[in-house]
Amino acid sequence: MKRYFQLARSMALKSPSKFRLGAIVVYKNSIIGTGFNWMNKTHPITQKFSKLPFPIGINAEINAILATDPADLRGAEVYVYRVKRNGNPALARPCNMCQNYLRSMGIKRVHYSTETTF
């Protein structure tokens, strides 16, 4: 588990956004997708699952799933990590849009960082 959070953290550090989040998708102990949030791009998935009246960027969880084969997602787990500006971990609980999207893709287990993660 620690290894997956470390990889999700390294993905978060690649994010150009103010709030840096990274995510990885794991299936049968293999990493099948990685991603980070992009606030300056939109995607049809975010328009479909977001309840906001304005377009939003691609969240880390969605970006990681877009890198996978959707047939592989039933039974997969997602790890999400948020990095503060000072490098410390922060709460990375998926937003409602991402939770709904993850459920629709068959993902039932999501692990996310908190301020006390490692």
Description of the molecule:
It is a single chain. The chain is built from 4 helices and 5 strands; from the N terminus they run H-E-E-H-H-E-E-H-E. Helices cover about 30% and strands about 25% of the residues. The model has no long low-confidence stretch (mean pLDDT about 90). Strand 1 and strand 2 form a beta hairpin. By secondary structure, the protein is α+β, with helices and mostly antiparallel strands. It has helices spanning about 1-10, 45-50, 60-65, 95-105, and strands spanning about 20-25, 30-35, 75-85, 90, 110.
Topology:
Layout: H1 2-12, E1 20-27, E2 30-36, H2 44-49, H3 60-66, E3 77-83, E4 89-90, H4 96-104, E5 109-112
Parallel strand pairs: 3-5
Antiparallel strand pairs: 1-2, 1-3, 3-4
The unreliable regions are none
Order of helices and strands: HEEHHEEHE
Computed structural class: alpha+beta
What is the beta-strand fraction?
15-25%
The biggest sheet, with number of strands, parallel, antiparallel or mixed sense and barrel status, is: 5 strands, mixed
* Rg calculated over all Cα atoms: 13 Å
Q: What is the CA-CA span between the terminal residues?
A: 11 Å
Give me the count of strands.
5
Report the total helices: 4
Summarize the amount of helix as a percent range. 25-40%
Give the overall form.
globular
Mean pLDDT: 90
How would you describe this structure in keywords?
five-stranded mixed beta sheet; 118 residues; alpha+beta
Short description:
Helix content is 28%, strand content 24%.
